[in-house]
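User: Teach me something about this protein's shape.
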Amino acid sequence: MNHPLLEVVLANEGLAELDAGERRLALRDLVAARTAAGEVAQVVGELSDAIDGYGPLSDLMRDDEVTDVLVNGPFDVWAERKGQLQHTDVSWDDAQQLRAFIERLLARAGARADASQPIADARLDDGSRLHVVLPPLAPAGPLVSIRRFPVSPFSIEDLVRLHMLDEDCAQRLVDAVRHRTTIVISGGTGTGKTTLLNSLLSHIGPAERVVLIEEIPELTPVCAQAVSLVARSANLEGKGEVNLNTLVRAALRMRPDRIVVGEVRGPEAVAALVAMSTGHEGSLVTLHARSATHAIERMTTLALQASPGASETSLRRQVSEAFGLIVHLERSAAGRRVAEIHRVLPN
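Assistant: First, the predicted structure itself:
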């Protein structure tokens, strides 16, 4: 936004001390004194979006059908609706304005990005996941990726209605959760792994204690007793990092009935395998993989990288014994769907 009142508002230190609701009321008084009566509501809305909202992206972020917002520099913004990417008319005047917008978003989320740390991840106020890459790593201009999540997680019945899976598959997965089968949800980026995982968590018994482990909080479980552990990046001095591997090991000391790992992709694979193989049946994890078979290979590879002295044959056997069911998801022009449900037989 490049409204002449924006500089006046940003220079008003009193507004900064108010919460968003109080600030909007104060903005109305300020704007009413400087703007024609018929334009007050519009200008207040624009200023509120610029300060407390999502600036030029505000309309997209209010659209419940939008699942992803992708900013490829100041003049190229895309949105995904119902699995289809669509170009939008959203833009900033220049890269400097986009950079200022990014800094405000990150600051509100308690994160930062600069020349020394040009990649940043954060969780926005509405639960959306923000990923930022700045120049020089992005030479054509700042890149922003926002993954949005529904306010209320989809139920398994919702996913059936959305044709992500049929009723028989849905019942099979619900039964697997209730029977404490360890489930791995695999697929590529944006295939709906977190969405499906969220829907399955609601079928965990009310007496079970669930420990959720994530790099960025995305899961919104409705099971009765769930506690969350979230990883932390190192600070500017390179200290204070708490990774997923550390959190999985911490979770094992918290008397969990089930452990849920939002995404296994590093050394935490070994700790997750230990958890799934030592009395924590019914745990659930997600994993990037090309197929159900590849999920076994990938988990074995991750575990081998974290334990270079271990036997590949031994790790592969441990993976096969730990995994009960692999649900593989794919995304196509028709949308996201369950492509394969594979029962793993121990070697």
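Now, about its shape. The longest strand covers residues 335-343. The mean pLDDT is 86. If you'd like, I can walk through any region in more detail.
User: That's plenty for now, thanks!
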